[in-house]
Amino acid sequence: MNSTLPVTIRGTGVYAPPEILDNAFFSSYLDTSDTWIVERTGIRQRHRCGEGESTATLAAAAARRALQNAGLTVEDVDLVIVCTATPDVVIPSTSCMLQGELGIRNVPAFDVLAACSGFVYGLVVATSMLQTGAYRNVLMVGAETLTRFTDYQDRSTCILFGDAAAAVVLSPSDDPQRGILYWNLGADGCQAKQIWVPAGGSRLPASTTTVAERLHTMRMRGREVYKFAVVKMQDEIDNALQSCDMTADELKLIIPHQSNLRIIESARSRLGLPADKVAVNIDRYGNTSAASIGISFDEARRSGAIRPGDRILLVAFGAGLTWATALLQL
Ligand code: UT7
User: Fold this and answer.
1) Ligand 1 atom closest to residue 287's alpha carbon, by position in its atom list
2) Which of 40, 157, 323 to mutate to test the pocket of ligand 1 (most atoms within 8 A of CB)?
3) What are the distances in angstroms from CA 230 to CA 86, 116, 224, 323?
């Protein structure tokens, strides 16, 4: 799909909790090793939230930084969107909890649950809401506390996930060239149980049994998701480039979801791109789901690797199974 409304990302901000879990933490009690984790995933460390922290508090810290970066205050925000698969509570939405943290009142707030595709889903939803003409400054945050939903006895998942939040402030732009030039969102709910948390919802409410069986933590068929991700990521990139009549060389940067360095590398080598054209932060953050693309975006923007006028491609996949792609002109 093509979107015509000129939109600009006015500010970005990231927050990751200070506690760091390195690979030695896992090899101290599980049958795993730093070598296995680095070779199979590319992850060297991840952040974990501590007491008193939650998805909304991480989101609030990132949001404050994004608003400051945009030169705006909470009074300027007229819509709040949080993209998360790890909400503070079942009721109400994490976006309302975020409003409470920031002291924002009387503007709409809602969550988007598209798991690791959340940040790109959120950008498309925020742009569409701006396109109605009803809003001026949308605060959109991808925030996750996956370590709170991780089974620390399952070596195939616990090594992967980390906590963080990435916020952006989006506003209409006077420059007709700016905005989302192309986007595509998708989902295949027939694969809903490839990555899921079985208990804690209406399907299987919390009980002593669900707690004993650790059913409130994530289950993932890693190998199946891996195969899906490699193919989907390449197809999505091809479709975006074809639709915009562009080659990969014309992009300043591709920002893929960070779930496994081997998935990212397979896309990069197939496109024949040099390492600096594809963003990587999985070594430092692990998989932060809806925050991962936002973290890379913020890093690239602050380092000057991407600037106004550049074209970049965001591509993600995750639980659902979902996928999402957006080609932006900054
Ligand atoms: O962002 C959400 C989407 N999620 C993803 O994109 C995750 C996609 N999947 C993956 O990244 C990979 O499938 C994993 C990193 C999860 C697993 O890597 P893999 O190369 O696919 O390993 P595997 O599941 O095929 O397992 C190979 C072996 C198994 O042992 P056996 O059965 O061959 O003896 C596993 O038990 O590796 C073993 N294994 C481990 N060994 C040491 C699994 N986890 C570990 C571990 N340390 N942490």
Assistant:
1) 1
2) 40
3) 25, 15, 10, 12
User: What distance lies between CA 175 and its chain's CA centroid?
Assistant: 27
Output phi, psi for 280, to 5 deg: -135, 125
As a three-state string, the secondary structure of 154-200 is CHHHHCCECEEEEEEEEEECCCCCCEEEEEEEEECHHHHHHEECCCC
Over the stretch 117-138, which tens digit does the pLDDT of each residue have?
999 999 999 999 999 999 999 9
* Alpha carbon distance 256, 251 (integer Å): 13
Q: Are 180 and 124 in contact (CB under 8 A)?
A: yes
Determine the pLDDT at residue 154.
96
Q: Tell me which residues are annotated as active site.
A: 116, 257, 287
pTM of the model: 0.96
Give the pLDDT confidence of 1-30 residue by residue, as tens digits: 555 679 999 999 999 999 999 999 999 999
Kindly report the backbone phi and psi dihedral angles of residue 96, in degrees, each rounded to the nearest multiple of 5, phi listed first.
Answer: -70, -40
Tens digits of residue pLDDT in 154-195? 999 999 999 999 999 999 999 988 999 999 999 999 999 999
Instruction: Give the residue among 22, 33, 30, 321 at the shortest CA–CA distance from 196.
Output: 321
Order of all β-strands in the sheet with 7-15: 7-15, 163-172, 138-145, 79-83, 109-112
Helix (H) or strand (E) holding 15: strand 7-15
Q: Which of 34, 156, 292 to mutate to test the pocket of ligand 1 (most atoms within 8 A of CB)?
A: 156
Question: What was the pLDDT predicted at 176?
Answer: 87
Name 112's bridge partners: 83
Ligand 1 centre to CA of 36 (Å) is 9
What sections of 216-274 are H helices per DSSP?
222-243, 261-271
Residues with CB under 6 A from ligand 1: 32, 36-37, 40-41, 116, 155-156, 159, 195, 222-223, 225-226, 229, 259-260, 287, 318
Residue range 222-231: mean pLDDT, rounded: 95
